[in-house]
Amino acid sequence: MAISFYGCQHLTPIYSPGGQPPGRAASLGRAVGQQIRAYRTGLPLLAPLGGVKVKDMPLNYRIWGMQYARQEAQVLTSYPAIADLFQSDGVDGRLLILGEPGMGKTHTLLAVAEILWQRASRNSGPIPVLVNLAAWAGEALEPWLTAYLWEEYRVCQATATTWLQTAQLTLLLDEFDALSSDRQRQFTKGLDILLRSNANQTAILCCRRQVLEAGGITFSYFNSGVHILPLAAQQVKTYVLAKLRCSLAPH
Q1: Positive or negative, the Cα torsion across 201, 207, 213, 217?
Q2: What's the pTM value of the predicted model, to 2 decimals?
C-alpha cells in the first residue's frame, strides 16, 4: 500500500477498471469517510497522546467577502458553521479557506470535509473527495482529475468522467501553495473554466491569503471564503497545558 500525501496509507481499491457494481457511489463514500478520519487523526492538532485524544484547538474564521457580499466583520467559530456557509444560498458550494502557513488550512479542510461527508451520507449529496494539487504538473484539469480519481480511489475513467460532468463530487483542493507562481496562475485559469462550464460543481480550495492580495490571482467562480484568524496567546497556553496534562496522566 502506498503512502498518501498526509502520511497515511492509501485505501484498498474500490473496484477494478472493468467492473462497475451497484452502489459504487456508496463504496466511494465509505472509502472517503475512512480516509478523512484517518487523515484527521494523523494531524498534529488531533494526534492522541498516550492513547488519550486531546480536544480540538478552537479556531476562529472571518468571512472573506468576494462576489457574494457579506459583512467581513462576521466571525465563525465552528466547523459546522463553515459547512453551513459553504452550503448556503449565494455561496452555493464554492468556498476558499485562507490563512498563513501553518495556521490550520488543511486541518480546517478535513474537519469540514468530515461534516460534508456525514451530510452527504444522509442526504445523497455530492461526495467530498480530497485532491492534492502538489501532484498537478500543468495538465488539462478534467482529464487530470479523472486520472487522479483512479490513482487515489480506483474510480474507473468512465465513472469518474460522469461524476465530474454531473457534479456528483465536491472537490477539496489542497496544496495549492505548493505550486509555483506560474503553475498557480495556470491552475486558476483551468479551475475557472471547470467551474464556469458546470454551474453545479462544488469545491473548497485552501491557499495563503497573500496569493489573493499580492499574487494577482483571482478565483472568479468562488463565491466566498473564510480567513483563519491568528490564535490568541491564551488559546495556545490553554491547549498546550491540556496536552501536557494528558501526557502526564496515568494510563
Answers
A1: negative
A2: 0.79
β-pair type (61-65, 224-228): antiparallel
- Cell numbers linked to 111: 474537519
Task: Tell how strand 75-76 and strand 61-65 pair up.
Answer: antiparallel
CATH topology of domain 24-43+58-230: Rossmann fold (3.40.50)
The three-class DSSP label of residue 235 is helix
C-alpha cell at 77: 467559530
Q: What is the pLDDT of residues 170-214, one digit of tens each?
A: 999 999 999 999 999 999 999 999 999 999 999 999 999 888 777
Output the CA–CA distances (angstroms, integers) from residue 232 to 47, 111, 155, 239, 240, in the order listed. 22, 21, 43, 11, 13
> Residue 207, exposed/middle/buried by CB under 10 A (0-12, 13-18, 19+)?
buried
Tens-digit pLDDT profile for residues 101-132: 888 999 999 999 999 999 998 888 899 999 99
DSSP H or E run through 244 = helix 233-248
Q: Show Cβ contacts of residue 219 under 8 Å, excluding neighbours closer than 6 positions.
A: 66, 96, 188, 191, 192, 205, 212
- Domains of the chain by residue range: 24-43+58-230
222 φ, ψ (degrees, to nearest 5): -95, 140
